[in-house]
């Protein structure tokens, strides 16, 4: 299966890379002008993640997390570094990773690796991560690349580890955005891709208190 709406894969990726090269390396840039909802986003994500960290035989470890499509490290800084001993970041835009080194401040010492790479070409080190966090970036991968990437993420998990996708979901079908060269899929399409990757959804939650005019945002945890 390939993404029905992506006609030219090479162009799809190169247009997106070009788009992000021109975006300011700021929290507002990461959020397309919606920087002010970053705290609401992070606070909900923290609550979501902490339910997997409570006592119990299945709780996730706190050794290492991977932030995918990390940008300048908005999530690494406020969600992942406070909860995990070390974090790795991967993003296709070199300038964002360079900016991250100052944006993250002192705590940024605990970022082990800054991988500059498209997720379609990236393989997390096997058996390494307690959490692989993938936020506001799945629309930049074709269906096949997303499913293959999720398979590699699955292999990258430590025992009890989880992969988390947090992203915009269309009401129905798949919508192409020519401006940043991305697609927005509905929840059913995303769930199918997850299943195809051999992952099982453990929890799913709609983000509350976001502005009405933007896409619904869902968080899905899987392993
Ligand atoms: C909307 S921003 C989200 C950044 C971060 N996840 C956050 O929520 O603050 C999208 C990010 O995805 C990155 N990106 C776009 N296409 C990518 C790809 N194919 N592989 C990896 N990163 C990509 C961009 O450089 C940008 O940093």
UniProtKB/TrEMBL annotation:
Enzyme class: transferase
Positions annotated to bind S-adenosyl-L-methionine: 69, 74, 91-93, 119-120, 135
Cited Gene3D superfamilies: Vaccinia Virus protein VP39 (3.40.50.150)
Any one GO biological process: methylation
Compartment annotation: Nucleus
Catalytic activity entry: N-terminal L-alanyl-L-prolyl-L-lysyl-[protein] + 3 S-adenosyl-L-methionine = N-terminal N,N,N-trimethyl-L-alanyl-L-prolyl-L-lysyl-[protein] + 3 S-adenosyl-L-homocysteine + 3 H(+); N-terminal L-prolyl-L-prolyl-L-lysyl-[protein] + 2 S-adenosyl-L-methionine = N-terminal N,N-dimethyl-L-prolyl-L-prolyl-L-lysyl-[protein] + 2 S-adenosyl-L-homocysteine + 2 H(+); N-terminal L-seryl-L-prolyl-L-lysyl-[protein] + 3 S-adenosyl-L-methionine = N-terminal N,N,N-trimethyl-L-seryl-L-prolyl-L-lysyl-[protein] + 3 S-adenosyl-L-homocysteine + 3 H(+)
One Gene Ontology MF term: N-terminal protein N-methyltransferase activity
Entry annotated with the keyword Methyltransferase: yes
Keywords noted in UniProt: Methyltransferase, Nucleus, S-adenosyl-L-methionine, Transferase
CDD domains, per database record: AdoMet_MTases
Claim: S-adenosyl-L-methionine is one of the keywords in the record: yes
Gene Ontology CC: cytoplasm; nucleus
Protein family per UniProt: Belongs to the methyltransferase superfamily. NTM1 family.
PANTHER family given in the database record: AD-003 - RELATED, N-TERMINAL XAA-PRO-LYS N-METHYLTRANSFERASE 1
Name of the protein: protein N-terminal methyltransferase
């Amino acid at each position: 299966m390939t993404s029905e709406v992506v006609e030219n894969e090479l162009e799809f990726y190169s247009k997106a890379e070009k788009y992000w090269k021109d975006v300011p390396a700021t929290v507002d840039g990461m959020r397309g002008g919606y920087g002010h909802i970053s705290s609401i986003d992070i606070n909900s994500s923290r609550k979501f993640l902490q339910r997997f960290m409570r006592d119990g035989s299945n709780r996730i470890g706190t050794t290492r997390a991977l932030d995918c499509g990390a940008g300048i490290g908005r999530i690494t800084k406020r969600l992942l570094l406070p909860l995990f001993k070390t974090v790795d970041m991967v993003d296709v835009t070199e300038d964002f990773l360079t900016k991250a080194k100052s944006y993250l401040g002192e705590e940024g010492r605990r970022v082990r690796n800054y991988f500059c790479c498209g997720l379609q070409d990236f393989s997390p080190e096997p058996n390494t991560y307690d959490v692989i966090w993938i936020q506001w970036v799945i629309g930049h991968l074709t269906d096949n690349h997303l499913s293959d990437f999720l398979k590699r993420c699955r292999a990258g998990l430590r025992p009890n580890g989880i992969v988390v996708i947090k992203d915009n979901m269309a009401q129905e079908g798949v919508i192409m955005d020519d401006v940043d060269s991305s697609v927005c899929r509905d929840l059913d399409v995303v769930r199918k891709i997850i299943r195809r990757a051999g992952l099982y959804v453990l929890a799913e939650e709609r983000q509350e208190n976001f502005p009405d005019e933007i896409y619904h945002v869902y968080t899905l945890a899987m392993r």
